[in-house]
Amino acid sequence: MSYAFSDQIVLVTGAGRGLGAAIATSFAREGAKVAINYRNSQQQAEELAAKLGDNARAFQADIRDGDAVNRMVNEITDTFGTPTTVVHNALADFVFNGDARKKLDEMVWDDFEAHALTGLNGALHLIRSLKPSMAEAGFGRFIHIGTNLFQNPVVPYHDYTAIKASLLALTRTAAAELGPNGITVNMVSGGLLRTTDASAATPDAVFDFIAESTPLRSVTTPEEMADAVLFFASPWARAVTGQNLVVDGGLVFS
Fold first, then answer.
1. Could you list the active site residues?
2. Residue 236: its pLDDT value, please?
3. Contact, 49 vs 23, CB < 8 A?
């Protein structure tokens, strides 16, 4: 199979807004067919699909539900063909505001489970649903969205970071198992992005502090991170799997 973007059918989870919308836009710009997954953001997802044109369509599914994922994949297949590429971006309801975060003595397992169901369980549902068709084609791309808080927990979002770290572990174990089928599994980890719905509550002073702390003297935008995601789906990454690319303007060296 060709590695060209124009031959790829890309499913982006949580793509109705924020980073997911930027990722969907980047793939559409490069000529891929794009399935815009949403859970609740129907209006935003459909407006984005209309903006991106005939090669984009919105598809509803709660990725925490395996049956819903299978239904969505069937709908995408009927519309565009079977997805070749998955960007798992969906995030449990969360607001990045360090001043309002829960401390450890305030947390319960339910806080972690919310992220686990979307991040880990969602990833598992996607792999289980699409691995057979990718293996048959001898080509597949799974790209997970992570965080630079693994290396630099300046704001200890314990629940969010712990589950994203678990997703990185799954990225690597999945890469080892799926590689013989021509399927790569990688992660792109950003820092705080300027600006998404999730980061909108972050004070400007925090953004400014981060910008001054980076070699590039800037806070990464959703569009900049989205373009980095393209790399792992591109021909230039055909021999790259099990990797975690940090995209944060050099705040964290990895």
1. 160
2. 95
3. no
Mean pLDDT over each residue of the chain, to the nearest integer: 91
Percent over 90 (pLDDT), the chain: 74
φ, ψ (nearest 5 deg) of residue 190: -100, 170
C-alpha distances (whole Å) from 214 to each of 135, 191, 194, 207, 250 are: 41, 11, 14, 11, 6
pLDDT in tens, 220-247: 788 999 999 999 999 999 999 999 999 9
Per-residue confidence (pLDDT) for residue 220, from 0 to 100: 77
Class in CATH terms, 5-247: alpha beta
Query: Could you tell me which residues come within 8 angstroms of residue 215 by beta carbon, excluding any fewer than 6 positions away?
Result: 249, 250
Sequence-distant (6+) residues with CB within 8 A of 127 are 142, 174, 178
- Cα 242 to Cα 152: distance, rounded to the nearest angstrom: 21
Q: What's the rounded mean pLDDT across residues 92-108?
A: 81
pTM, full prediction: 0.93
State how far the Cα of 53 lies from the Cα of 148, in Å rounded to an integer: 33
Q: Exposed (0-12), middle (13-18) or buried (19+): which is 169, by Cβ within 10 Å?
A: exposed
Q: Where are the domains of the chain?
A: 5-247
Segment (H or E) for 47 = helix 42-52
Using alpha carbons only, give the angle 206, 209, 215 rounded to the nearest 5 degrees.
135
Asked if residue 5 lies in contact with residue 31, where contact means CB atoms within 8 angstroms, the answer is yes
